[in-house]
Amino acid sequence: MALKADARAEADRLMAAFQGAGAAVVEADILQPAEVLLDLYGEDIRARAYVTNDPIRGEMMLRPDFTVPVVQMHMDGGAEPARYCYMGEVFRKQEHLSARKSEYFQVGYEVFDRADPVAADAEVFALFASLLAPLNLRAVTGDLAILTAAVRGLKTLESRKAALLRHIWRPRRFTQLLDRFGGRAAVPESRARLLAALASGDTLTQSPMIGLRSDAEIATRLAALQEDAESAPISAEEVARLEDLLTYTGTCTAALAHLTGLARDMPTIAPAVDRMAARLDALAARGIAVDTLDFEASHGRTTLEYYDGFVFSFLATDPDLPPLASGGRYDALTTVLGQGRSIPAVGGVIRPGIVADLKEGAPC
């Protein structure tokens, strides 16, 4: 396994390449305000990050990644267009004892450019592909914009679509919701009892008040539960089309043909499919063999939740290794952190320690 010195040396090499591509070097504090990350991801982030308390700054997290602080820095007054690169350690809890480190180096490259987002996607991917080419990795791509567009196009309650979108990065929970909204799974027993009580006229006013929700918030939630219970399930045809999309794998060119056909029955995905077609043209223009490049429609659904478009990973043959590189588009994140301002943005990170190991043929 690579020593820190080996990882740092590989990081320096990658940083030089990113600077050669026009990126400015930026740094981010190791301690990051927990409030920002909790607002973005909810309490789930606690399971993956190291949390501490500062007597002055309050709750803080050891830096789980660089993208959020880099976006904050740019939205606070960065010039446009902009390209940034960075290196340093990140900290992630590991669920089980394994060879995966909880502290490791990342090197990253981010592009903020509103002129041609498709070209920026191709730029980042092609740059990573060229730097990692000697390692003979498998590249996998996806597009979360197609998935979210498909969910938004469902003929069902807005509340159901919102729930599915909220859990699109949690495949198991997403499938449970889709089964329930599609009428293929029973309503949970606790909810069934609550609905029965509401149907009998019980206003639940005798129940003790627990938690911080107001009476109005509770009433709104109960009304939403009743509306959901009284609404027809999502049709079997729509569920089947969505599942077909979620499970699709193939080459990029085959995927484009499949998705173009699927768009005839799911017209809301057509704009995202058109962007995919333009992206493949841009990738091909940069020498990427899109006829053999892998596409997985659900790729990126278990990563950090700010990706909302094109996503990619570079994988070693050893399935126990994490991706050597990953990235994607995160336009919505710039809107959230820009407090109304936004700019199309795409980027990615590489793990130089694993790159160094593979170059030396060392066990990881």
TrEMBL record:
InterPro entries found in the cross-reference section: aa-tRNA-synth_II/BPL/LPL, HisRS-like_core, HisRS/HisZ
Pfam family, one: tRNA-synt_His
Domain Class II Histidinyl-tRNA synthetase (HisRS)-like catalytic core: 11-200, 223-348
Gene Ontology biological-process entries: histidyl-tRNA aminoacylation
Alphabetical keyword list: Glycosyltransferase, Transferase
Keyword Transferase: yes
Entry annotated with the keyword Transferase: yes
Record-level GO cellular component terms: cytoplasm
Residues binding L-histidine, per UniProt: D65, F66, T67, R92, Q106, E110, R301, Y306, Y307
UniProt GO molecular function: glycosyltransferase activity; histidine-tRNA ligase activity
Organism: Albidovulum denitrificans
Protein name (Swiss-Prot/TrEMBL): ATP phosphoribosyltransferase regulatory subunit
